[in-house]
Every structure is written in C-alpha cells, then in structure tokens.
Specification:
five-stranded antiparallel beta sheet; Chorismate synthase, AroC fold; four-stranded antiparallel beta sheet; globular; about 400 residues
C-alpha cells in the first residue's frame, strides 16, 4: 500500500512527509523533486513569501545511492523564514506570549471553525496548519509518485484551464509538446492568447486589492484499463481522485471528463461509443478497444478504460484581500476589518502543480494496488503480463 502523512506548520521549522510503500529499485533524486517544488513557487500573481522561500527537498531515508530501497521515505522541506518565527512558534512553554495571540478570524479561512472545533483562543494555532504552505510537501510526494509512474510510461500533466473568467482553448498537441507549452507560460496554460488576458486580469485584481480563482486541469496519459474498481464505493478511482483534488486548500469543485456539462446534455451526446481495431494491437497498443470521444474522462464505473484521465478542479479566489472583508474578534465579539496575512493575488498556476501532484499520488496508489511488487522489477513483470492479457482479450 502506498500511503503518506505530512506534518509541519506554515512558519514552523520545516514540512515533513513520511512516504510508505514505494518499492525498491526506483531511481530518484532530490533534483527531480526540486523541479516540481520550483514550479509550485512560480506562476504569475504570486506574493511576497515566494521571494523569501526557495523550496528544496532533503531525502532523509528510504533512498540509497539514487535508488529507493523499499523502506519508508522521509522528505523534508525547510522553511527559510523560521529564523524570524522561532519564538512565536516555539514548542516550549517558557516562550508563551499571549500578547501576540491572533483573535481576529478571517472570512474564507479555517480560522473560526477551526478555533471553535479545537477550543483555541489563538487563531494562529489553526491558520498555521491550514495554510496552503502545506502543499509544498505534498508536491514533493507527488514528484515521487510521478517518478514511479513514468517508469511505466504514464505521464501526469497539470495546467490552468481558466483564470479570472478567461478560458483557454486546448491545442491539438502531444504530451511532450503540451508540457513544453505549459512550462513556457507565466500562468501555466497552453493558449498564448488566453495567457495574455489572464495576466491582465491578475494585474487588474491586484490593483484593486482583490484576488482571482480559476479552474485547473490534470491529464494522465498512458494509463492501462483496469485501475480502480466498481465493487466498493471507496475503491472507485474517480471518487478517490475527487477527494484528493478537493483536499487542496481553496478548492471547491471537481469534474471528471465532461463533468457538470453531462447533466445538461442528452445521453446520446454524453456517452463514448466503443470501437475495436485489430491494427492497434499489431502496432503495440495495450488493447484493440478504443473510443473516438473521451467525455467520461478515462473512467467508467470507477475503473480506468484506457483513455486519458481528465480531472478538473475549481479554486476559489484567495480569501486574504488587501481590501479587507468584515469579521468579528473571537474573544471580544467586536466587529473589525479582517487582518491581512502575507498573501498572493492569484495562486491558480501554482495550484495546477499541486493538483498534478495529488492526482499522481492517487494513480500511483491504484497502480500499486493492481500490480503489487516489493521491487520495481517485480511490478514490471506483473504489469507486462497484464498488458499481454489485454492484447489477447
């Protein structure tokens, strides 16, 4: 079983993840994880903290001489700003200072419900962990999952589909060309015309002291038929993907394939017809079955059907505004204008990297569930045998 836990606060000394279940024999370096960490920190519209932190991962266990060894992997991303927060975030009782408590709950954050649930009179005890800073370590875990999937020809690509009401038009590009287009865009999209409009929208929002949300898309290509299952609700891969994307801070909606649009169309324009071509098998494809459309987003009955998996997530505008909203002090109950923690105007491009990571984790988990193996070579043998079976089906 592939699983992980994260720990750490936004202004604590570090973020940590323990990753369990990665088989031995996978080539893995800190450098390739750091590529995704840098992507998460980039994107047009990011705020001041990105100038303070330069995220770098340290692999403290589970990897020897550039390869996984089958034991738990420990990943650490240190917070450079910790030096300025050491006493305010100290674990030691003698450093307690009630004069610096945060008692003003910000609308749109976990501040008030979290303080009420955990019986806290200092909102910082909630906001530090609920902060999207936590996604840095999840991106590191996702990079490990992507390295594993790439060993089996599976690619995971995240991008910005919509930002501030501006929608991108998808070009007809292969995976590599698509990834290159996204990498060269300041807003991580593949439509140059939409890119210009998105950046202009961010500039307008920043000047007005406002924030913008958007929609991100993750595509997974090279996935075989048969990941996930229909037999229990919690084994349905589409459900697990939806939960993973919704776990990202500020995400409020998920679509698989055509998503909500399918509710507005007749069945004849929703379901993907099935075809068969023996020449596909002759050319080395995994199976001769195919579909001319992919409105299902690569998943039917909670199971992958061999087409590309397409998942979209809707991110709300960041709730920390430089034109503050109204709120109430949790102790005095007096009204006030919400306080401003350091924030971005728009983090949708960065969110596409996070979505890419959590989707990769779920696909890797399902892949391991299906093919097992304590080593990558054992998994490869199991996978190869299954592909041969599919070609003969």
């Amino acid at each position: 079983m592939f699983r992980y836990l994260t720990a750490g606060e936004s202004h604590g000394p570090q973020l940590t993840a323990i990753v369990e279940g990665m088989p031995s024999g996978l080539k893995l370096t800190e450098a390739e994880i750091n590529i995704d960490l840098a992507r998460r920190q980039g994107g047009y519209g990011r705020g001041g903290r990105m100038k303070i932190e330069t995220d770098r991962v340290r692999v403290l266990s589970g990897v020897r001489w550039g390869e996984t060894i089958g034991s738990p992997i420990t990943l650490v991303v240190e917070n450079s700003d910790w030096v300025n927060w050491e006493e305010r975030m100290s674990p030691y009782a003698e450093h307690r200072d009630d004069s610096i408590r945060v008692t003003r709950a910000r609308p749109g954050h976990a501040d008030l419900p979290g303080a009420m649930k955990y019986c806290q009179s200092d909102v910082r005890n909630i906001l530090e962990r609920s902060s999207a800073r936590e996604t840095a370590i999840r991106v590191a875990v996702g990079a490990v999952a992507k390295a594993y999937l790439s060993r089996f020809g599976i690619a995971v690509t995240g991008c910005v589909l919509e930002l501030g009401g501006v929608k991108a038009k998808r070009p007809e590009l292969g995976v590599k060309a698509l990834q290159e287009a996204i990498a060269s865009s300041p807003v991580y999209t593949y439509d140059p015309e939409a890119e210009v409009e998105m950046m202009a929208a961010i500039d307008r929002a920043k000047a007005a002291g406002d924030t913008l949300g958007g929609v991100v898309e993750v595509r997974v290509t090279g996935v075989p038929v048969g990941l996930g299952s229909h037999v229990q609700w919690d084994r349905r891969l589409d459900a697990r993907l939806a939960a993973a994307v919704m776990s990202i801070q500020a995400f409020k909606g998920v679509e698989v394939g055509a998503g909500f649009e399918t509710a507005r169309l007749p069945g004849s324009k929703v379901h993907d017809e099935i075809f068969f071509d023996e020449q596909l098998v002759a050319r080395g494809e995994k199976t001769g079955f195919y579909r001319k459309t992919n409105r299902a987003g690569g998943l039917e009955g909670g199971i992958t059907n061999g087409e590309a998996i397409v998942v979209c997530g809707a991110m709300k505008p960041i709730p920390t505004l430089y034109q503050p909203l109204q709120s109430v002090d949790i102790l005095t109950k007096e009204p006030f204008e919400a306080t401003v923690e350091r924030s971005d105007c728009c983090a949708v491009p960065a969110a596409s990297v996070v979505a890419e990571a959590v989707v990769a984790i779920e696909i890797a988990t399902s892949f391991m569930d299906k093919f097992g193996g304590d080593s990558v070579s054992e998994t490869a043998r199991n996978y190869s045998s299954y592909i041969e079976y599919l070609r003969e089906f």
